[in-house]
């Protein structure tokens, strides 16, 4: 919730956030629909624009409807429609996509709406779609994910789960892989989550791609890096500590653990020209590198995440 002042004029609607000073300015010619409804804080106004943006303002009194309705008719040539939210408490209904919103409706009444720009990840399973959200650092409690069960249909050629996910992803604020990866490590052995993964290194995130799971991990979520020897002295663990963790179903992985054999070597060529490498990494990486696989992975990760790698000291247990 952002407090502020709302001003309606013949030219349009202006809202100034009293905390950040940010101003929403909606031109009268852009307004496509106005909805009046009862919400948690009294009554609210929901405005839709012709290019699909949605603005919501709460804190109105019931008695202000007539005044607002007349104003909308006179100056914006819009009917201010009264719509009630559904309070049945059912958990099945219809999902509708309109502009930047996903609306979950029972009959003709909406139950809740999700601004798709808040979605950070959308994953699909069998008859299931999971939406994960960007964390709100200002809120003490924030919603992390919502899951929808999508019943199978008899129609041929249309996968309802895939169609649902595509609708979400077209408007979501999801990390998109634009351009080519800086480098790719193929078939690395991962202990958690278990499996063999291709790791694609991008400038702002790493992409973990396996047979069943697919994760995009922003470097801002990496807390620490560890390089630890296995007790057989022939293998090395590379551990990446994450907050928030990556999730698969109910399981959360706070640590990515990669296992390397010490005698596995690799020659690596970064997908950048030499000037870019020098400018960006200032000597920490070069365009062509070779050495043991664990050293290359840890060196690239250290340079991109900008965190030092923790290694064991000389402590004897």
From TrEMBL:
This is FACT complex subunit SSRP1. Its main location: nucleus. It is found in: Nucleus, Nucleolus; Nucleus; Chromosome. It holds the Pfam family PH1_SSRP1-like. Residues 2-81 form the FACT complex subunit SSRP1/POB3 N-terminal PH domain. It comes from Nothocercus nigrocapillus. SUPFAM superfamilies: PH domain-like (SSF50729). GO terms for biological process: DNA repair; DNA replication; regulation of chromatin organization. InterPro entries: PH-like_dom_sf, RTT106/SSRP1_HistChap/FACT, SSRP1-like_PH1, SSRP1/POB3, SSRP1/POB3_N, SSRP1_DD, SSRP1_sf. Keywords: Chromosome, DNA damage, DNA repair, DNA replication, DNA-binding, Nucleus, Transcription, Transcription regulation.
């Amino acid at each position: 919730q952002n407090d502020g002042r709302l001003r309606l004029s013949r030219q349009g609607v202006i809202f100034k956030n009293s905390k950040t000073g940010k101003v929403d300015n909606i031109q009268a010619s852009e307004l496509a629909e106005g909805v009046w409804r009862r919400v948690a804080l009294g009554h609210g106004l929901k405005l839709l624009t012709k290019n699909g943006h949605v603005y919501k303002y709460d804190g109105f009194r019931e008695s202000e409807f007539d005044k607002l309705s007349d104003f909308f008719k006179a100056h914006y040539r819009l009917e201010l429609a009264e719509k009630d939210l559904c309070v049945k408490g059912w958990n099945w209904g219809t999902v509708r996509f309109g502009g930047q919103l996903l609306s979950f409706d029972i009959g003709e009444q909406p139950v809740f709406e999700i601004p798709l720009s808040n979605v950070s990840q959308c994953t699909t399973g069998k008859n299931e779609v999971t939406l994960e959200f960007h964390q709100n650092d200002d809120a003490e409690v924030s919603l992390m994910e919502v899951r929808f069960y999508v019943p199978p249909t008899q129609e041929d050629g249309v996968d309802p789960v895939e169609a649902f996910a595509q609708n979400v992803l077209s408007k979501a604020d999801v990390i998109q892989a634009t351009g080519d990866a800086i480098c790719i490590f193929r078939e690395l052995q991962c202990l958690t989550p278990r499996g063999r993964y291709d790791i694609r290194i991008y400038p702002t995130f790493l992409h973990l791609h396996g047979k069943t799971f697919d994760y995009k991990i922003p470097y801002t979520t990496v807390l620490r890096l560890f390089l630890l020897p296995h007790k057989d002295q022939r293998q090395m663990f590379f551990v990446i500590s994450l907050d928030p963790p990556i999730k698969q179903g109910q399981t959360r992985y706070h640590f990515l653990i990669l296992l390397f054999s010490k005698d596995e070597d690799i020659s690596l060529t970064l997908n950048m020209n030499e000037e870019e490498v020098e400018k960006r990494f200032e000597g920490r990486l070069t365009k062509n590198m070779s050495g043991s696989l664990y050293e290359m992975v840890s060196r690239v990760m250290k340079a991109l995440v900008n965190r030092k790698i923790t290694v064991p000291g000389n402590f004897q247990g």
